[in-house]
Amino acid sequence: MTGFLLAAAGFVLAMVALGLVRILRGPGNADRLMAAQLMGTGGIATLLLLGAATDVPATRDAALTLALLAIFATVAFVKGIPAADDPDRTQESE
Amino acid sequence: MSLVLDVFSIAAICAGAFFFLAGTAGLLRFPDALTRLHALTKADNLGLGLVVLGLLPRAGGVLPALKLIAIWLLVLLASAIVSQLIGRAARRESRLQ
Amino acid sequence: MSWTLALEAGLAALVLGVAVWTLSVRQTFAAVVAFVVYGLALTLVWVRLSALDVALTEAAIGSGLTGVLLLGAAARLRATEADAVAERPGAGVRAAAAALAALVALALAAALLYLPEPAHTLAPAAMAELPATGMRNAVTGVLMAYRAADTLLEKVVVLISLIGVWSLAQDKLWGGRPGLLHHADPDGALAFLARRLPPVGIVAGIYIAWLGADQPGGAFPGGTIIAAMWLLAMMAGVTDAPPISRRWLRLVLVAGPAVFLAVGFSGFFTAGAFLAYPVAYAKALIVVIEVGMVLTIAATLGLLMAGPPERSDKP
């Protein structure tokens, strides 16, 4: 069971890595926005599987922190996208 | 009983891993930022949900199990909102080009 | 090859790959996104190294908040970005930089590989004295008891850096509100998130801060999560950055170091030295310090990210 959980964690990590290769390059910034989301969700799945495999319950707290901060980072990216046509985006309505 | 739970865990986690695979396949193959966004948020969240489901029997108590579900609900809320924001940004960018 | 080794090799490859990408991509925004991904991946590395307190802090500060800081810097540098991207340093400079980086990496690798075996460590001594501090988490014991003076100085340094950021304001704007005003459609998705998430995030932050006594966690990751929630609310326009001249704000900012100092000085009377805790009250005193620290860290980090005052407070 531990071996299976580790293998599952490794598989999810490999999927995240593959996805990152694609969207970090992605033409345009909209693709790159998704990178934090991908790493966040995949990272949480990997952490939860690792935590169950190594029987360290505190890993769940790390997954919780990762979840909150990945959300925050993605929102910050969306607000911080360089937009060619409006210089002070922060004062534009959503 | 624990054998049944183990089989359930393995089945759910395998299904979750499959959805992660599907999500990444979508990321690699879809032509457009919006379609890639769809693949990412729908598939990865379902994948995470199934992984959480598979880990529930191994959580060791009601409170840790609730924590796992809370993490999943948080990610679900986040990606629902975030897909809106990213989708809007993607449309704005494609309109500028 | 065991699964563990394969997993760790894959993780190392991922971290290295993202790091190389961060350095080589030319647009600032893309580089910042890659940096945040790098930080999130590094969290997994820390977990594999059984350093969960560091993992929590990495997720909180190393990726989330530092990413926002870099985004803010990138926004201010937008005007010169085209020139910066077009500039290519000469071959000589690049060769020298590569040589220097390789030298540092080799030195680190040598230091790591030639560590004496068994490594000199104070860990058994630290663990032996831990019950006297009332903590069960060794990291918190080190931070709050054995090396409490370090932690106190760090808090003061963070406060001083905030004052440094504030000093970048124009004279006539001193005392005003940091950053520009953010607008968001009050019925829109972002405002919805900024109303639903912060309560959950604040509870999670307090939970992780409270957990630090017995398990990985502590005031620093907890306070950072709360700061991130405050920043989220500010970014969505749900709340506005407070003017820096407000007294309550300044009280919250100094609460952490002030409580820390007070407990430290009381140590002269109760246990004979600065920052000494009487054994019976050690845990209670540390908890009191941590409450102050959570407030100060949340407020300070939030304001650091918000930037110097850019709007006058006077109508």
Task: Explain what you see.
The complex is a heterotrimer of chains A (about 90), B (about 100) and C (about 325). In chain A, about 75% of the residues lie in helices and about 0% in strands. Chain A has about 90 residues and is mainly alpha-helical. Chain B is mostly helical. Chain B has one domain. In chain B, α1 (about 1-30) runs antiparallel to α2 and α2 (about 35-55) packs antiparallel against α3. In chain B, about 90% of the residues lie in helices and about 0% in strands. The N and C termini of chain B lie far apart (about 60 Å). Helix content of chain C is about 70%, strand content about 0%. The longest helix of chain C has 25 residues, at about 50-75. Chain C contains twelve helices and two strands; from the N terminus they run ααααααααβααααβ. Chain C is globular. Chains in contact: A-B, A-C, B-C.
Layout: helices, strands, pairs:
The complex is a heterotrimer of chains A (94), B (97) and C (315).
Chain A: H1 2-25, H2 29-54, H3 59-80
Chain B: H1 2-29, H2 33-55, H3 62-96
Helix pairs in contact in B: 1-2, 2-3
Chain C: H1 3-24, H2 28-48, H3 52-76, H4 78-86, H5 91-113, H6 123-133, H7 138-146, H8 148-166, E1 177-178, H9 189-211, H10 219-235, H11 247-270, H12 282-306, E2 309-311
Antiparallel strand pairs in C: 1-2
Helix pairs in contact in C: 1-2, 2-3, 3-10, 6-7, 7-8, 8-11, 8-12, 9-10, 10-12, 11-12
Observed structural traits:
heterotrimer; A: 94 residues; mainly alpha; disordered C terminus; C: 315 residues; two-stranded antiparallel sheet
Q: Count of DSSP E strands of chain C?
A: 2
Q: Indicate the low-confidence ranges of chain C by residue numbers.
A: none
N-to-C span of chain C: 68 Å
Shape of chain A: flat
The biggest sheet of chain C amounts to: 2 strands, antiparallel
Q: Please give the domain count of chain C.
A: 2
Helix content of chain A: over 70%
Order of helices and strands of chain C: HHHHHHHHEHHHHE
Strand content of chain A: under 5%
Helix content of chain C: over 70%
Overall geometry of chain C comes to globular
Q: Strand tally of chain A, please?
A: 0
Rounded to the nearest angstrom, the distance between the terminal CA atoms of chain A is: 48 Å
Q: How many helical stretches of chain A?
A: 3
